[in-house]
Amino acid sequence: MSLKFPIFQIVDESGQLINEQYKDEITEELVKKFYYNMTRIRTFDRKAISLQRQGRLGTYAPFEGQEASQVGSALALEKDDWVFPTYRDHGATLTFGANMARTYLYWKGRVEGCVPEKGKKIFPPAVPIATQIPHAAGAAMAEKRKGTKNAAIAYFGDGATSEGDFHEGLNFASVFQAPAIFFNQNNGFAISVPIEKQMNSETIAQKALAYDMPGVRVDGNDIFAVYFQTKEGLDRARNGEGPTLIEAITWRYGAHTTADDPTKYRNQSDSDVIRENRDPLLRVERYMKLNGFWDEEWVTKIKEEIAIEVEQAVKDMESFPKPNVNDLFDYVFEKLPWTIAKQKEQYLQLIGRES
Ligand SMILES: Cc1ncc(C[n+]2csc(CCOP(=O)(O)OP(=O)(O)O)c2C)c(N)n1
Ligand SMILES: [Mg+2]
């Protein structure tokens, strides 16, 4: 099956353009946009880990290594499309226009972290695996019924493809020819379980065959391949040609979350080798150098701007108004049962407040 679903690349590990078809569309502006957005989200991600280690954020799920998949797919979207992310997809949501301070706030356990910018159709990160997939299919079906040209994208990992929700979502989208992109980031692991132990299929892309939709396998560390394949899938979706499944083969360098120790289940030196050979940012840097787009001054400037933006987001997150303790009790039942009312009273007493 891997022969039927070859890995699609446009720029190889050394930064060489190996697919001439897209040559004219690859402008200096587009390549700089790739580099800028990947640098931005990598900076965000590293800062999140540092904040967690200092006790300033709760558990965090890092995505370093997966930047090309997330930025490439998000940049292919139009502003009125829907985004259904997981806990690891802040690279995609930030690129699409999510607020950075609120994204940090989410990992402080604050519900306000789930509120998107006005007009941005970004769902809260799905922590229950694969539940966002039928939601995306539904949103796409709704857009089709309304007669718009908007599409929906669902992000999910390799592990999610073993869930019923994955199959239900793809089936519905296929039956109704809904304008959806099912964007899989195959990072080889569902927490500690390697892909060979998760499934007997050789590829994830081949699962599209069952639903008679295009299944595309791309090098998820080649942002050029991800961007153009997502765009093509979206074009088909907007033209009424239904959904597409994209398998982006990638790797997370770090732990599953800050609560995980990857050395218990894999050899971390593999990550060092992948970083040297297949790093998504390094590949764009190599491409830029080979094509005369690399400009040290510009790189220094954007890195400074990004550092300021991230520091400001941390400040905004930390100065966000404290949560209202009543929120802990007030929204589960329409009328507070006496047991919870008593708990609330005792808690307020404990913290020395009347209401
Ligand atoms: C329904 C459900 N089952 C189990 C879990 C526990 N869990 C959290 S993350 C995860 C692994 C998911 O792996 P994958 O889909 O490959 O995504 P990745 O974390 O690699 O991005 C599991 C099993 C969960 N959150 N939800
Ligand atoms: Mg995974």
Ordered list of secondary-structure elements with their pairings:
Blueprint: H1 28-53, H2 67-75, E1 82-84, H3 90-96, H4 100-106, E2 121-122, H5 132-146, E3 152-157, H6 164-175, E4 180-186, E5 189-190, E6 193-194, H7 195-198, E7 215-219, H8 223-238, E8 244-249, H9 269-278, H10 280-290, H11 296-318, H12 327-330, H13 338-350
Parallel strand pairs: 1-2, 1-3, 3-4, 4-8, 7-8
Antiparallel strand pairs: 5-6
Thiamine diphosphate binds next to strand 3 and strand 5.
How would you describe this structure to a colleague?
The chain has 355 residues and is α/β, with parallel strands linked by helices. It contains 13 helices and eight strands. A hairpin with a 2-residue loop joins strand 5 and strand 6. Helix 1 packs antiparallel against helix 10 (280-290). The structure holds thiamine diphosphate and magnesium ion. Magnesium ion (MG) binds at residues 157-159, 187, 189-190. Its cofactor is thiamine diphosphate.
Briefly say what this structure is.
With 355 residues, this protein is an alpha/beta fold.
**Radius of gyration, rounded?**
21 Å
How many helices?
13
How do the SSEs run, as a string of H and E? HHEHHEHEHEEEHEHEHHHHH
What profile does the largest beta sheet have?
Answer: 6 strands, parallel
Summing up helix and strand content along with how strands pair, one would put the structural category as alpha/beta
Hetero groups: thiamine diphosphate, magnesium ion
Kindly state the mean pLDDT as a whole number? 96
* Percent in helix: 40-55%
Low-confidence stretches: none
Cα distance, first to last residue?
63 Å
How many β strands by DSSP?
8
Strand order, largest beta sheet: 2-1-3-4-8-7
Shape: globular
Strand content: 5-15%
Keywords: Oxidoreductase, Pyruvate, Thiamine pyrophosphate
Catalytic activity: N(6)-[(R)-lipoyl]-L-lysyl-[protein] + pyruvate + H(+) = N(6)-[(R)-S(8)-acetyldihydrolipoyl]-L-lysyl-[protein] + CO2
Subunit structure: Heterodimer of an alpha and a beta chain.
Organism: Neobacillus ginsengisoli
